[in-house]
Write a structure and sequence with these properties.
- This protein is mainly α.
- It has one domain: Orthogonal Bundle (Urease accessory protein UreF).
- The protein has eleven helices and no strands.
- Helix 5 packs antiparallel against helix 6, helix 5 runs parallel beside helix 7 and helix 8 packs antiparallel against helix 9.
- The chain starts with about 25 loop residues before the first helix and ends in a 9-residue tail after the last helix.
- This is Urease accessory protein UreF.
- Keywords: Chaperone, Cytoplasm, Nickel insertion.
- UreD, UreF and UreG form a complex that acts as a GTP-hydrolysis-dependent molecular chaperone, activating the urease apoprotein by helping to assemble the nickel containing metallocenter of UreC. The UreE protein probably delivers the nickel.
- Belongs to the UreF family.
- Required for maturation of urease via the functional incorporation of the urease nickel metallocenter.
Length: about 250
């Protein structure tokens, strides 16, 4: 019986489903972890990022009509080959206990960030995610990764931290990378709202329209190797460089 509500039911120590702990999370538990780690309210600082969109807006290089195409391009050629691929590699390395491979993945991802603001955004959100995941999820993988970051053997990028956190919680790699890509899309569209490039109703249309591209991006990320890590979005990089030197800006990237 609950002391607070008086209701009958299982205690915190009792799981009526009989599911195992994080190392063998069932489907529902894995879903709950994904929802928590990719929630817009998760305090990693993701809401401070526009993922380059503010730079496009400042240059008047994006409109409400071209917003979906820009999101699709960033997924296919930027986030997919870089962050999504790094998340997959980090998840597998953490699961296998290959800590040097994990550190190398993190270093390579960091090296693909051509602008200072992108590197700073990746490590700030990544280290915050790592700290919270250590407290809320725990486990050897997160502790070993934190030690690598503390020793400056790994920079602590967000995608790598997310891969390790999902692995520590027993979330399958495909589900983990899909969730993180959706979080990117949601954050991107949220930035578009704040930049007045869309409204709340159209934002949902854009999100749903991105689903096939997310599926395509996930499938590609799952088969890439470490040598394939890195996107190619030169215009987005140029916009980010311009944004970094803007006199006024709403987002840190």
């Amino acid at each position: 019986m609950s002391v607070l509500s008086g209701a009958e039911g299982p205690t915190d120590a009792e799981d009526p489903s009989g599911a195992e702990g994080p190392s063998g999370a069932d489907g529902l538990d894995a879903l709950l972890v994904c929802l928590q780690l990719t929630d817009s309210a998760f305090p990693s600082g993701f809401y401070t990022l526009s993922h380059g969109l503010e730079g496009y807006a400042q240059a008047k290089a994006v409109t409400p009509d071209t917003l979906p195409a820009l999101l699709a391009d960033l997924l296919r050629h930027g986030v997919g080959p870089s962050d999504a691929t790094a998340l997959v590699l980090a998840h597998r390395a953490a699961t296998a206990g290959e800590w040097e491979l994990l550190a190398e993945t993190d270093r390579r991802l960091h090296a693909t960030r051509l602008n200072r603001e992108l590197r700073l955004a990746a490590t700030r959100t990544g280290r915050q995610l790592l700290d919270i995941a250590r407290e809320s999820i725990g486990g050897e993988a997160l502790e070993r990764y934190a030690a690598l970051v503390a020793a400056k053997r790994a920079p602590g990028c967000q995608a790598v931290a997310a891969g390790v956190a999902h692995a520590a919680a027993g979330v399958p790699v495909e589900q983990a990378v899909t969730s993180d890509l959706f979080a990117f899309c949601s954050s991107f569209v949220g930035a578009a709202l704040r930049l007045r490039l869309t409204d709340h109703r159209r934002a949902q249309v854009v999100l749903r329209a991105a689903a096939p591209v997310v599926r395509e991006t996930v499938a590609a990320a799952l088969v890439r190797e470490l040598a394939d890590l890195g996107g190619c979005v030169p215009v987005a990089d140029a916009m980010s460089g311009r944004h970094e030197r803007a006199e006024a800006r709403l987002f840190m990237s």
